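Translate sequence into structure tokens.
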Amino acid sequence: MKKRMKKLVTIKMALMLACCLLAGCGNGRGTQQVDGERTLVHIGALKGPTTIGLVNLMADAESGETANDYEVQMATAADEILPLMVKGDLDIALVPANVASVLYNNTDGAISVIDINTLGVLYIVSGDTSITSVADLAGKTIYLTGKGTTPDYSLQYILSENGLTDCTLEYKSEATEVAAVLAEDLNAVGLLPQPFVTVACTQNEALSIVLDMNEEWDKVQDQGSSMVTGVTVARNAFLEEHPEAVTAFLEEHAVSAQKANNDVENTASLVVEAGIIAQAPIAQKAIPGCNIVCITGEKMRQALSGYLEVLYDLDPVSVGGTLPEEGFYYVP
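Result follows.
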């Protein structure tokens, strides 16, 4: 906990010190006009499910088939993207949902969420096929990664809402360690995200998905919220200066996400090419379980606000101390 708090404080200090940069006094790189009215947009994204819905757009951009010109920079952790957003080196970023809230709170509301790009990617995996409901987890040990992270909070919330208080949560440092436990003991239960779910089940056919956490979230929610993994944010200075570019991006992002779901084979090849998943067969199996979307407007606000409320109730620090104000949600 101390390590996590120290990390959050460090990020907060960096964001607060550079807050003015997001308001429009960046280092001069920023957004540029190219080829007349075409806009060069700098995008930051994470190597994971949150970017799978973007790969078709990236391919179209390379062939000049998009309204904007896009320069996409991928990173392995949100900590690499946030400073670039703060400095104005990025105009748009695809980040975890709670990280967007932290960024908003610590930059005096200088960014807005423009869409949800990924819903839940978490699944309960086990070789014990007798598990068919959350109630069947009673008294069991569940292996997972990231104590004090959103997967941890999401699991705790679903267990609590189902009245389970006797589960033991055992944390591992990496998803591969959880998969190793499951491979050694088929009766073990693990919480894994995609694509690790697909990798684990491919390597050991005795393992399978026994519970879809998206479905379990929906069963205990009656306010229209959803389990949200990733969102897309934009600097407000960029939004104000280039509203047409934002509109074009959202339209092209929606098309790209739809392609990811409808043309899994070609999308898998692009995912491998981008270095998000190493092998095309794994990518093809994992993509349908990644819940790739492009949800905007009021539907986005409702789905995301309820999710952040759950995280806030469990630990206010997870969303930056306070829930974001309405300006956080870009609803044209």
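Note: The chain is about 45% helix and 20% strand.
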